């Protein structure tokens, strides 16, 4: 009886706790009646209310905010205003409401009045004003947001970032201005952000040079300037960015990488230069990055040979992407002196016709090799032998491969990999052509019994060919030599 009573108390206790909030939230977090904030919707979350207003206008949003203002001790953890007709954010619209994350997205917002956000300085940590019609940074409305961590101004119509545009945002860690119409960033634009700002995205704009303003951000870790019109870079462009870990310059108009361009970036780990028009990389281009750079992307350029002289100093390089260039030849010493740390090598979509005998000898750690869509006819086992034991992925699809005994290694490697349940490699359809039959075969199904493999490959032929091998062993050496 006592046992049953204990169970009953436990059940009652559980129901009481569950009745407070299905998400474990405080009893104070209660949504207003739906009819009072309609067409907005409200849900209770662990840290406060989650309120969404979509496809409505300023009148109904203001009405819903008035209802929330009358409720003390309520935290609106998320306020999401999306796809609305809200050309102007009126003064004091959020006065008296504790909002932590505010999103006004795709709502035709063009004017943010100075007092519209001023009351939110204590609690607001994230502000998203993306995909609107803002023609400039709404600096007066932002200056009192002293606890803001993330500001998203992506997809607006900002053309100039004026000096002191973000003054007052001394706690800001992430600032994104992606895909505006920015052509000018004044020298003092980021004044006040140097203490905390870690990530800056100014990609997708009309910049023609690296703005000097970024040089004052000495705590910046990630700088994204992709999809601009930057045509030249120099050593002084990045002076001051002593803690930068990642630099994105993809899809600009660079034609060469000059000497010591990144020499001030002693902690740079990742560098993206893909999608430019680079034809020349100076042998001293990566000076200063010897012990830091691990990820280098040079794909989609106009490089004609592996830039070994520039790469040799990168002793910690792990990921090298050279896809979609005009490389037709790999020198035997292409990876000498620096290849032993590379785990990922992408050479797809080039014009490589053959592989040198010792081209991969130094790639002792290679796990992924992509040679897809080149002009390779033969891939001899001797070339792959130094790396075949560490490889987890080898992509040789879309090459005019000939079915020959030199390709037997791939079939054996794939079989061993299958034992490790590597599904991705099993799904790739790699084919070769039997010349005298004018017929394609999956490499896994090459007709080895009709290919007369000898030498090292003979030892690995299938059991079905064993009788012929035994018979050949009985032929005198001179006759056997003539046959061969």
From TrEMBL:
Record's Pfam families?
LRR_1, LRR_8
Leader sequence segment:
1-19
Q: Gene Ontology cellular component? A: cell periphery
Name the UniProt key words of this record, in alphabetical order: Leucine-rich repeat, Repeat, Signal
Domain of life here?
Eukaryota
Start and end of every LRRCT domain? 399-454
Keyword Metal-binding (UniProt): no
Q: Could you identify this protein by its name?
A: LRRCT domain-containing protein
């Amino acid at each position: 009886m006592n046992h049953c009573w204990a169970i009953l108390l436990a059940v009652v206790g559980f129901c009481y706790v569950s009745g407070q909030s299905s998400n474990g939230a405080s009893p104070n977090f209660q949504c207003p009646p739906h009819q009072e904030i309609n067409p907005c919707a409200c849900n209770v979350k662990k840290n406060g209310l989650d309120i969404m207003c979509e496809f409505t206008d300023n009148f109904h949003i203001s009405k819903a905010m008035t209802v929330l203002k009358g409720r003390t001790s309520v935290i609106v953890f998320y306020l999401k205003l999306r796809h609305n007709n809200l050309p102007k954010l009126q003064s004091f619209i959020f006065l008296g409401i504790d909002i932590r994350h505010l999103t006004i997205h795709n709502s035709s917002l063009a004017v943010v009045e100075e007092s519209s956000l001023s009351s939110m300085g204590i609690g607001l940590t994230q502000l998203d004003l993306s995909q609107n019609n803002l023609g400039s940074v709404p600096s007066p409305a932002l200056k009192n947001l002293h606890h803001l961590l993330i500001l998203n101004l992506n997809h607006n119509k900002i053309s100039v970032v004026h000096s002191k545009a973000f003054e007052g945002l001394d706690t800001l860690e992430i600032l994104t201005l992606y895909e505006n119409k920015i052509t000018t960033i004044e020298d003092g634009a980021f004044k006040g952000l140097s203490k905390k700002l870690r990530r800056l995205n100014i990609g997708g704009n009309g910049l023609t040079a690296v703005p000097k303003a970024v040089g004052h951000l000495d705590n910046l870790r990630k700088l994204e300037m992709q999809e601009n019109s930057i045509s030249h870079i120099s050593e002084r462009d990045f002076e001051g960015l002593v803690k930068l870990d990642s630099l994105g310059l993809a899809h600009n108009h660079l034609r060469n990488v000059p000497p010591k361009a990144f020499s001030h970036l002693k902690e740079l780990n990742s560098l993206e230069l893909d999608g430019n028009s680079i034809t020349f990389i100076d042998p001293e281009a990566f000076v200063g990055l010897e012990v830091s750079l691990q990820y280098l992307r040079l794909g989609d350029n106009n490089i004609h040979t592996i830039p070994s002289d520039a790469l040799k100093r990168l002793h910690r390089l792990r990921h090298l992407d050279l896809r979609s260039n005009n490389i037709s030849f790999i020198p035997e010493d292409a990876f000498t002196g620096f290849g032993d740390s590379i785990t990922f090598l992408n050479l797809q979509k080039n014009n490589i016709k053959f592989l040198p005998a010792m081209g991969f000898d130094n790639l002792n750690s290679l796990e992924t090799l992509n040679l897809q869509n080149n002009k390779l006819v033969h891939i001899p086992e001797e070339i792959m032998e130094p790396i075949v034991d560490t490889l987890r992925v080898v992509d040789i699809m879309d090459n005019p491969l000939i079915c020959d005994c030199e390709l037997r290694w791939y079939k054996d490697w794939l079989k061993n990999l299958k034992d490790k349940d590597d599904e991705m490699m099993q799904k790739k359809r790699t084919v070769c052509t039997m010349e005298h039959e004018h017929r394609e075969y999956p490499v896994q199904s090459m007709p080895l019994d009709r290919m007369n493999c000898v030498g090292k490959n003979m030892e690995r032929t299938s059991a079905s060919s064993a009788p012929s091998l035994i018979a050949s062993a009985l032929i005198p050496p001179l006759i056997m030599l003539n046959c061969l």
